[in-house]
Specification:
- This protein is mainly β.
- It has a single domain, classed as Neuraminidase.
- It is about 0% helix and about 50% strand.
- The protein is built from no helices and 24 strands.
- The strands form six sheets. It has a four-stranded antiparallel beta sheet, with no helix packed on it. A four-stranded antiparallel beta sheet has the order 2-3-4-5, with no helix packed on it. Strands 6-7-8-9 form a four-stranded antiparallel beta sheet, with no helix packed on it.
- A hairpin with a 5-residue loop joins strand 22 and strand 23.
- The protein is globular, with a radius of gyration of 17 Å.
- It starts with 9 loop residues before the first strand and ends in a 9-residue tail after the last strand.
């Protein structure tokens, strides 16, 4: 499927229960369907393959530099690693840091992963701040940031110098310097926004795309908060990713909030859409 016209939305896949956490990797879009407990790889012609099954909610993903898949198994408070034969092994145990749901993951160029915990049992419990943990390549885990207001999407800049985090309840994107040992320092506001940013991606012009569930749109913003572009959808946008042959396909993960069926309950309202982006993504895949 070609995606030629700037801003035109193309449907790639529908009927998903609760899609999330898109990543462009080796010519396909990889994402999780939390409601179905599946990790799916999807090409630009709409052909899809279930590449892993994990009954967890949330269940976010990223890839190690050698291509192996990492999966946040929030239900068991661990990070799983998919081996070349398709089997799943425990990569890191997160239970010692937080008993609350673990959410997003991003891997840097050295094979270390940052994973965040939202800090409370959403949506029933009262809000409490969350944290960010570092998982080193050998599976060691330590906390590297706290006091974050519902941490969501994360990106690491290509030079591995900066981590940018969406704080959904803080209505901001927050940046940290990455120390040589993987620690986070010099916390600062990257952009204040007027909504609740969810999943994010970074482009080659240094701008961030983020999903906005409540306002049913994707937003492109530069550091400092200037809004560069909005794409309106007919349902909530949970996350964005850039990929495609030239890096300028913007993938949008959309769903009707509150209508996601339980596993086995039939087709859902989740969709994967694509549009032409003004700048390519940056990444290692």
């Amino acid at each position: 499927m070609s995606i030629e016209r700037h801003g035109e939305l193309k449907p790639l896949m529908s009927g998903l229960a609760f899609p999330e956490s898109p990543r462009w990797h080796h010519g396909r879009l990889w994402f999780s369907d939390w409601g179905a407990g599946e990790v799916i790889a999807l090409d630009l012609d709409g052909r899809s393959e279930v590449v892993a099954r994990v009954p967890s909610f949330p269940m976010c993903i990223d890839h190690l530099p050698d291509g192996r898949l990492l999966i946040v198994d929030s239900s068991q408070r661990r990070v799983l690693r998919q081996e070349p034969d398709g089997s799943l092994a425990t990569h890191a145990d997160l239970a010692g840091l937080s008993e609350h749901p673990w959410n997003e993951i991003v891997v840097d160029g050295h094979g270390s992963a940052y994973v965040n915990s939202i800090g409370f049992d959403f949506p029933e419990a009262e809000f409490a701040p969350g944290l960010i943990a570092l998982v080193t390549p050998d599976g060691a885990v330590r906390q590297v940031a706290d006091g974050v207001a519902f941490p969501n999407g994360m990106v690491v800049t290509p030079d591995d110098s900066t981590l940018i985090l969406a704080e959904s309840y803080g209505q901001r994107l927050t940046a940290f310097d990455i120390a040589p040992d993987g620690g986070l320092a010099n916390r600062r506001v990257w952009a204040e926004v007027d909504d609740h940013p969810d999943g994010i991606c970074l482009d080659a012009e240094g701008a961030i795309w983020y999903g906005d569930v409540g306002n049913q749109r994707a937003v492109r913003v530069r550091e400092g908060g200037e809004v560069l572009q909005r794409i309106d959808l007919d349902r909530g946008c949970f996350a964005c990713a850039l990929g495609g042959p030239d890096g300028r396909t913007l993938f949008l993960i959309a769903n009707a909030w509150g209508d996601a069926p339980s596993p086995g309950g039939g087709p859902g309202k989740g969709r994967v859409l694509a549009a032409r982006a003004p700048a390519p993504g940056v990444g290692r895949a």
